[in-house]
UniProtKB/TrEMBL annotation:
NCBIfam families: DREG-2, HAD-SF-IA-v1, HAD-SF-IA-v3. PANTHER family: HALOACID DEHALOGENASE-LIKE HYDROLASE DOMAIN-CONTAINING PROTEIN 3, PTHR46191. GO terms for cellular component: nucleus. This is Haloacid dehalogenase-like hydrolase domain-containing protein 3. InterPro entries: HAD-like_hydrolase_domain (IPR051828), HAD-like_sf (IPR036412), HAD-SF_hydro_IA (IPR006439), HAD-SF_hydro_IA_REG-2-like (IPR011949), HAD-SF_hydro_IA_REG-2-like_cap (IPR044924), HAD_sf (IPR023214). Pfam families: Hydrolase. The lineage of its organism: Eukaryota, Metazoa, Chordata, Craniata, Vertebrata. Belongs to the HAD-like hydrolase superfamily. The gene is Hdhd3. SUPFAM superfamilies: HAD-like. It comes from Sinosuthora webbiana.
Length: 238
């Protein structure tokens, strides 16, 4: 069954790039640099709790609720430290602004195995490429810093789109930007519902990056599963 694909869309976090270390460790290191002792594990737990609550109350970085994504993140960072026992408001503001900037730089991100080679090969094969990511507007800078931006014709974040995956409207925007019909496009991502199932619901093909041993999760036809990114080429070679 030849997939007559013209467009490939890509998730970023945990598909192409991942954090070099857990958030709690990065946050604790920055606090130490400012003379504050905070336990990384406690910070990690606080962050997960705060991020979850903020995402429920202000979905998609507060889009349409009067929040900028920058303010959304500054609030998350400050509240994570408050929950971990830091009360000094001046210190919290300084920490939040520094960490918000730090996550734009490549020193917090690393490429997943096979990412650079797979993207280069896909471009050589003539596919149009774009990003579809539940991310804020820092993503362009992150991709540039990590030397990936040049692979993509467009970078569509949920903040810019106004819709977050699994909402099909973000995929519809991507198809318009990529000049492809759904059946000519495939999405690659690591999340079953937001990437794999949502792209298929929009009429696209999709592939689920799922490392060996990550078998817990819904059944996916084996030909749609990528144990590593390098497995993609065999699935889509024209």
């Amino acid at each position: 069954a030849m997939l007559r694909l013209r467009l490939l869309t890509w998730d970023v976090k945990d598909t192409l790039l991942r954090l070099r270390q857990p958030v709690g460790q990065s946050y604790a290191a920055e606090a130490r640099a400012q003379g504050l002792q905070v336990q990384p594990e406690a910070l990690g737990r606080s962050f997960r709790e705060v991020y979850g609550a903020q995402s429920r109350h202000f979905p998609n970085y507060g889009h349409g609720q009067g929040l900028s994504s920058r303010q959304w993140w500054l609030d998350v960072i400050k509240q994570s430290f408050r929950l971990s026992g830091v009360q000094d408001e001046a210190a919290l503001t300084k920490l939040a602004e520094k960490l918000y900037r730090d996550y734009c730089s490549s020193h917090n991100w690393e490429m997943l195995p096979g990412a650079a080679e797979t993207l280069s090969r896909c471009r050589q094969l003539g596919f149009r490429m774009g990003v579809v990511s539940n991310f804020d507007n820092r993503l362009e800078v992150i991709l540039s810093q990590c030397n990936l931006r040049h692979h993509f014709e467009f970078v569509l974040t949920s903040e810019a789109a106004g819709f977050a995956k699994p909402d099909g409207r973000i995929f519809e925007q991507a198809l318009r930007l990529g000049g492809a019909r759904p059946e000519q496009a495939a999405h690659i991502g690591d999340d079953y519902s937001r990437d794999y199932r949502a792209a298929r619901a929009a009429g696209m093909h999709s592939f689920l990056l799922r490392a060996a041993g990550q078998g817990d999760g819904p059944e996916v036809p084996p030909e749609h599963v990528l144990p590593t990114l390098s497995h993609l080429l065999a699935r889509i070679e024209k």
